[in-house]
Design a protein that fits this description.
Blueprint lengths: L10 H7 L1 H11 L11 H9 L2 E6 L1 H18 L3 E5 H4 L10 E7 L5 H13 L3 E5 L5 H5 L2 E4 L12 H20 L8 H16 L2 H12 L4 E6 L2 H17 L2 E6 L16 E6 L5 H12 L4 E7 L9 E3 L8 H18 L18
Helix pairs in contact: 2-8, 2-9, 3-8, 4-8, 4-11, 8-13, 9-13, 10-13, 11-13
Bound molecules: 6-O-phosphono-alpha-D-glucopyranose.
Amino acid sequence: TDIEKGTYPHYMLKEIDEQPLVMRKIIQTYQNEEGRLTIEPNIVNAVNDSDRIYIIAAGTSYHAGLVGKQFIETIAKKPVEVHIASEFVYNMPLLSAKPLFIFISQSGETADSRAVLVKVKELGYPALTITNVAGSTLSREADFTLLLHAGPEIAVASSKAYTAQLAVLAILAEVSAQSRNIPVEFELLREFGIIANAMEVLCDSKEIFEQIAREFLSVTPNCFFIGRGVDYFVGMEGALKLKEISYIQAEGFAGGELKHGTIALIEEGTPIIALATQESVNLSIRGNVKEVAARGANPCIISMKGLNMDEDSFVIPKVHEVLTPLISVIPLQLIAYYAALHRGCDVDKPRNLAKSVTVE
Ligand code: G6P
């Protein structure tokens, strides 16, 4: 994880490929001598003492927050709200009696998030920053910090920081659950090993994603991502990746919501990338795909092994259902990468974007 590109044509591709390595680094760093995942007791207490967690973030980190909410609510049974930093600062919701604020920021320098942190500290509430940069502003000004250990992320479009954020949020959820004797239906450490291997399989499947990008995205002006539950949140991140680096207009939608308006945009050949990694909604998301296919859309279904069907474009390896976002995002990162490449875009330095935005 050094900052050289080595033999890679782009930092983004290198950083996508580093994800299995980062997973293993996180497993190592967050493990204690007895081989159990562990988090500083002060931080676990802050989670346990709060009656509601408020996640504040921007961009990709906001999308990680949406998945993090799912992790914390399912695993640690704590209610979580996720807010866009620039909205929260001017439009603060009613807070619970004992809130804990979690700031998610790769850089730790995003001004929109910092504005919220300043306000939160004025109000006297505890704050935890999850960041890739030790000593960053958001880390220094919060009470607690959890580091991503993802190594420097150079490409403007975030990839390995997103999966690292998910991993750290899952650890936080699990350690908090265990400390309160809440049963967790899987052993996270073991699942992380399976996930790291699955990430490798995906990173080794680049030709398929290049082919998908060529087939679905070489000429289109737009693209929709659909999913239900966490697949919806990962779809939003997939859409952001595609917008950022290929300039294709893309949007992530909840599978059931598309028909309430946006389906009007579907034309002959409009690409729809659908995620199907959740058993409980597998049939309903496939129903949504049929609705758009009947109107001429060109569907690309990415499913998880065990839920796959003949028409699927790609099947990701099986991992625990709660944790699928850690791997289902990788096909979307790679599809965005190749779409941008085929369109001749500057992958690492997309127009109008900055790696960290230090103005509000
Ligand atoms: C910028 C970057 C995005 C990033 C967002 C939040 O807009 O272009 O890629 O997701 O900031 O950055 P942070 O460092 O707070 O995660």
